[in-house]
């Protein structure tokens, strides 16, 4: 196995921790012999548990580690938190060197792990070829540690002519099987999925991840329902059949009188939109560190309008619906302070069957 293959394996190991490690980052580790043979691998399995390095090294005799190369998707931690420092552990082993995918953005680490290893005489190499993938793995964590707020991504599936769904409003499958599988992987990466009440009524989605490795995850669902009109009907919907009701939040106008345990108050501004920056603060305090906004157009637009959507995943299917009455997913963005256009950054393209996914980070003026 070469070093790129080893790091790619470490990154895919890390993904196994999606949905279980938040608010920690997912991390994977691979150990190769001096000849490039795979000795061991491991990943951070759950919050508070062993770090990836310890999972990979735990059962290996020190003798076997002589001259070994260790590949980690993230810089090893430098301090003792819930678990001892991985950098110190690695420094004490007879390994030859460490390759890492990205620096740990946690200000308590941020380079200090590398220092520990270098001071112990280990060769430390940043594998820049894999940095993009390693960084995207910890996108949520990086945002959380630098802003103390949830990271918010929007996901849309549209036709080639830009429609979100049929003009009747009833959403139907636009994207293909492979894209939908990718959405299930996204859902596993985010603590919560957010939709508007119209989407709940029309689509009655489950919003969980149905990939076999994440089936037991219970992600949160957040529903925008200002007047709380669906609060009493919660049992009718799929979202409450696949998860405990304690994992469902209906965001309602904070002025609303109600007695529902799932209602979550938020101020509404003069144009009738929720005050999203305030909502994000309240949601973070509740322990929800990331949100995937899955629609509809009004919910997505209100996040963009308030400069609170940080990442976009747009799946484009080779279908033309035609007509003028289709739904444009940004049609509720009215204010002009976005400028004439918003350009995404860190743009990536990926194909899923006949569909393509364009993703990128937003940058507001
Ligand atoms: C690593 N390997 O697998 C992970 C790391 O509270 P603790 O002890 O679990 O430490 C959490 C911090 O460790 C977290 O904020 C991040 O900086 C780092 N995560 N580091 O060497 C791992 N998950
Ligand atoms: Zn560690």
Question: How is this structure best described in words?
Answer:
- With 365 residues, the chain is α/β, with parallel strands linked by helices.
- The chain has a 9-stranded mixed sheet, with helices on both faces. The chain has a 5-stranded mixed sheet with strand order 2-1-3-4-5, with helices on both faces.
- A hairpin with a 5-residue loop joins strand 1 and strand 2.
- The mean pLDDT is 93.
- The protein contains 10 helices and 14 strands.
- The protein has helices at 3-15, 52-57, 86-91, 112-119, 131-137, 139-147, 177-189, 197-203, 276-285, 297-305, and strands spanning 28-32, 38-43, 69-74, 97-102, 123-126, 151-159, 192-196, 220-224, 248-253, 263-266, 290-293, 311-317, 345-352, 355-361.
- Helix content is 24%, strand content 22%.
- The protein folds into 2 domains: 3-134, Cytidine Deaminase, domain 2, CATH 3.40.140.10; 148-363, Dihydrofolate Reductase, subunit A (3-Layer(aba) Sandwich).
- The site of zinc ion has 5 residues, from loops.
């Amino acid at each position: 196995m070469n070093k790129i293959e080893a790091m790619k394996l470490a990154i895919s190991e890390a993904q196994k921790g999606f949905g279980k490690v938040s608010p920690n980052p997912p991390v994977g580790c691979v150990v190769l012999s001096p000849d490039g043979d795979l000795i061991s691998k491991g990943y951070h399995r759950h919050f508070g548990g062993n770090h990836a390095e310890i999972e990979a090294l735990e059962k290996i005799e020190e003798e076997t580690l002589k001259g070994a190369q260790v590949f980690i998707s993230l810089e090893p931690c430098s301090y003792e938190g819930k678990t001892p420092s991985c950098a110190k552990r690695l420094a004490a082993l007879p390994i030859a060197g460490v390759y890492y995918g990205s620096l740990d953005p946690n200000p308590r680490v941020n380079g200090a792990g590398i220092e520990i290893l270098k001071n112990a005489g280990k060769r430390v190499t940043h594998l820049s070829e894999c940095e993009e993938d390693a960084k995207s793995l910890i996108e949520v964590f990086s945002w959380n540690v630098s802003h103390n707020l949830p990271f918010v991504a929007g996901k849309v599936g549209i036709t080639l002519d830009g429609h979100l769904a049929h003009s009747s409003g009833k959403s139907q499958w636009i994207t293909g099987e492979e894209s939908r599988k990718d959405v299930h992987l996204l859902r596993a990466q985010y603590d919560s999925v957010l939709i508007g009440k119209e989407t709940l009524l029309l689509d009655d989605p489950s919003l969980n991840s149905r990939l076999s490795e994440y089936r037991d995850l219970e992600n949160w669902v957040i529903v925008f329902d200002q007047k709380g009109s669906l609060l009493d009907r919660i049992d009718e919907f799929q979202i409450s059949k696949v998860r405990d009701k304690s994992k469902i939040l209906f965001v309602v106008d904070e002025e609303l009188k109600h007695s529902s345990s799932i209602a979550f108050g938020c101020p509404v501004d003069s144009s009738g939109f929720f005050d999203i920056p305030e909502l994000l603060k309240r949601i973070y305090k509740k322990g929800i560190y990331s949100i995937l906004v899955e629609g509809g157009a009004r919910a997505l637009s209100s996040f963009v309008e308030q400069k609170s959507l940080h990442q976009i995943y747009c799946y484009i299917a080779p279908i033309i619906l035609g007509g003028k009455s289709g739904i444009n997913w940004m049609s509720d963005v009215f204010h002009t302070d976005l400028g004439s256009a918003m350009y995404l950054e860190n743009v990536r393209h990926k194909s899923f069957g006949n569909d393509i996914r364009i993703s990128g980070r937003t940058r507001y003026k």
